[in-house]
Amino acid sequence: MENKNLEHLRHSCAHLLAAAVIDLYPQTKVTLGPAIDNGFYYDFDFGDAKISDTDLGKIEKRMQDLVKKWEDFQQREVSSDEAKKIFAGNVYKLEIVDEIIQRNEKITLYKSGEFEDLCRGGHCESPKKELRFFKLLSVAGAYWRGSEKHKMLTRIYGTCFATKDELEKHLWQLEEAKKRDHRKLGKELELFFIDDVVGKGLVMWLPKGTIIRDLIEELARKMEKEAGYVRVVTPHIAKEELFLTSGHLPYYKDSMYPPMVMDDGTYYLKAMNCPHHHRIYLHGVRSYRELPLRLAEYGTCYRNELSGTLSGLLRVRAMAMNDAHMYCRKDQIKEEFAGVLKLTINYFKLFGLKDYWFRLSKWDPKHVEKYINEPENWEFAEQVLREVLVEMNVPFKEVENEAAFYGPKVDVQFNSIIGREETMSTIQLDFAAKKRFNLTYIDEKGEANNEVFVIHRAPLSVHERFLAFLIEHYAGKFPLWLAPVQVELLPVSDAHLDKAFEIEKALTKAGIRAHVNNQQLTLGKKIRLATLQKVPYMGIIGQKEVDAPKLSLSVRTRDGVDSGMQELELFITTLIQTIENHS
RNA sequence: GCCCUGAUAGUUUAGUGGUAAAACAAGCCCUUGGUAAGGGCUAGAGUGUGGGUCCGAUUCCCACUCAGGGCUCCA
Question: Which of residues 269-308 of A touch strand B (CB under 7 A)?
Fold first, then answer.
């Protein structure tokens, strides 16, 4: 929230919304209406009435009519009996009243115009004067108190600003954000699609999208090799026994695809790679000299996410994870953890990602059923992670009840372009695997030691989610090293086609992704098409270039910079340099 | 999963209770063009799938599938 005044303004606007709704739909039960980032909402129980986006205009109009008579908010305090009488028939308000009584707080009502609402306060001075620049945005379902065990209410979202300019600017920004939505760009740039016949949340990568995926994977291989990882490959399925051993089945069953019952046992699609990697660790006797052992794999996992939560590439059901597990001794945890953190930060720097923050995700002793109940280990592990974050001077927030069931983690949080907070990278400490899988090593004294700690990490998230962020981050204008087509060659006429293909061949040989537009179009049109495809460089080949003594082309960028004719050899040298610098 | 919205040619959209229209893309023809859309012609969907109402459905109703928005920012 930018400031208190705006918060008050928006909360007041929520009151106004409720008043308009009651006016239009008198049977409606009002519940809660807070100010939120960028706006406000109010949750209603409309009873049998159905409300859709098309009704918003009507409600907004009524708000504008009502607000003309809205003087200052009048506060009054009532006794618990009075409150219960006033809100009789509204189970939601009664529930809130009961909570207030339990907390031994004052019950206050606020009234403006004809509408009085249970409210703790925090309003604008004069609704009539200030509440002018608002807009209702959408209708959504929301569970009472956010729990799917409760009734589904109808939520109306809106926004409100102090000035007309600010409101218009905000609405413009919403429109702009839509333009760089990865789902829209993914289609326009032919990167991926989701096919009805294949299934929900299952992404089909097209050739251009696959180029980017492969390049990111290549980068990961290189960086991980330098950081001392070794690569492994494991199958996409495994027997039930493996997931019982890992403990995923009881904890994670809802998120896993249902089992496949075969002659020789029951199989599951893997929802994570760790159990497979643990089996690799157990393949043979490990010496202390081998630790830390870092097993890396871009492993594809399958999770049966709730259908309503699926969203483009951000939440999918099949995902290629930038996974690795490090097996180490207790005294190596800190260094390993710091190593991953550094790697993560380096990746983000390389991609120019800045808008992220770290979250130390801890367990919650109040919800022991969700976690392995070993308080000492939790305390120790959380302390180690905290120390690394502090020593590396990385700002972070500590949040309870966000840990994995086997240990605390550090998550890297991002805001997507549509404003939803998502976890990008994750580094997790696991002190449960050693016991479950009986992970051991032979120590310096020749004795088996069971103190093997596991770090799970996925700095580049899963391909799907990471690509979603990259597409939106770059607005589809990928840097040269990632661009699916790096140079689009545009012959001025068919007479120059041969030369264009000759240059394409030379570029390909130099490792540059080039493509000739051999359509029968005017040069202007070809430039337009390449610009829309956000190809970094266009190479124009006409009579002038054909007549040049050495292979040459005229270069233009997607941003319209025309740098004139240059020799191909020179052009290639500059390109390669830019590509190698990842700039 | 639940609430709301939507699904019409490869894509983006229009439209109607009497079996669909346009733009771009595609193919062909003319044009061989020098830095953001040259012109013409042709072909292409029976309106997501399955039911129902009706003389008749793409249009109305129901179910399903998929997509989009939302589901602990608290009187």
Answer: 306-308
Write down the ipTM of this complex: 0.88
Whether A441 and A347 map to the same domain: the answer is yes
pLDDT digit string (tens) for A153-177? 999 999 999 999 999 888 888 888 8
User: Does residue A479 fall inside a structural domain?
Assistant: no
Give the structural domain span for A38.
4-179
Q: Which residues of A116-133 are buried (b: 16+ CB within 10 A; e: fewer)?
A: bbbbeeebbeebbebbbb
Tell me if A544 is assigned to some domain. Answer: yes
Closest nucleotide to the alpha carbon of A121, via C1': B75
DSSP A400-456: TT-SBTTB-EEEEEEE-TTS-EEEEEEEEEESSHHHHTT--EE-TTS-EE---EEEE
Q: Which of residues 559-578 of A touch strand B (CB under 7 A)?
A: 560, 562, 564-565
- The DSSP symbol for A258 reads P
Do the beta carbons of residue A319 and residue A299 sit within 8 Å?
A: no
Q: How far apart are CA A75 and CA A508, in angstroms?
A: 74
How close are the terminal C-alpha atoms of chain A, in Å? 35
- Tell me how many domains chain A contains: 3
Query: For A507-518, how does the pLDDT look when each residue is reduced to its tens digit (9 = 90+)?
Result: 999 999 999 999
